[in-house]
Amino acid sequence: MKIITWNCNMAFRKKAGLILVHQPDILIVPECEHPDKLFFDNNTPKPADSLWFGENIHKGLGIFAYGQYRFKLSNKYNSSFKMVVPITVSGGDTTFNLLAIWANNPNDPDGQYVTQVWKAIHYYHSLLTNKSAILIGDFNSNTIWDKPKRAGNHSTVVQQLEAKGITSAYHQHFKQVQGNEIHPTFYLYRKKDKPYHLDYCFASTHFSDRLKSVEIGAFDYWCQYSDHVPVIVEFKKIRLKKQGS
Question: Which residues have C-beta within 8 Å of that of residue 2, sequence separation ≥ 6?
Fold first, then answer.
């Protein structure tokens, strides 16, 4: 299974072909316009299933499935977390719980970005304890910005997930330490000298034990399309018992 996240910096309809050449089974697209605006040409693969969340039709969270994969929004979904969305993914060779993430809620006085994820992993605790879960998307966070007095900072999110057996695929694959990543996923103002690692795929042991590859997009190619580059994660085929939503 190949799962990709790419913050497309809006106008996904014009850029979809760029990421779909990588043949994702599941694609998470922050800053994606509403499906009513997604008109793809005949050469662009059409998703087999999709979900979209947001209040601005030009800039929401798009989640797309290809091949045999299908989505079902969890009945535990809490809209107060905005774009941290729990989904049951079925089809292909596995069924699992997915949290699709664009950590961006300017209306939350407690914290607009990673605090959203921190709140969500507590609320969706039961969906993350079945050893078949993935959290992926734009977390808008990094350990370098931790505020020690804030419970919901990046490091506490990582620690809470690790306590559930859920770890970062990138850090596992490249043997990196949180806050010292050598592969940026975001370039402020699309400047190569302003790099940060903000996009992640966290996976439970059933996936991380079968991690095949992780690829971070190259700045020189992707900077003409977005301030983010894609994170492409592939797992070897697995077979899991069906999980409830």
Answer: 22, 23, 24, 25, 26, 232, 233, 234, 235
- How would DSSP label each residue in 14-41? GTHHHHHTT--SEEEEEEEPPGGG----
Contacts of 98 (CB under 8 A, 6+ apart): 26, 63, 86, 87, 88, 89, 133, 134, 135, 136
Q: Which residues pair with 202 in a beta bridge?
A: 135, 168
CA dist list (Å): 243 to 25, 72, 98, 133, 151 = 19, 12, 11, 10, 30
Q: Give residue-wise pLDDT tens across range 94-137.
A: 789 999 999 987 777 677 789 999 999 999 999 998 779 999 99
Provide the greatest CA pair distance for the chain.
Answer: 52
The residue behind tokens 């989505």 is 71
Q: What is the model's pTM?
A: 0.93
**Statement: residue 239 has pLDDT above 60:** no
Rounded CA-CA distance 101/111 in Å is 15
Facing residues of 168 across strands? 202
Distance CA(128)–CA(136), nearest Å, equals 13
Please give the Cα distance from 20 to 147 (Å, whole number).
37
CB 3 within 8 A of CB 24: yes
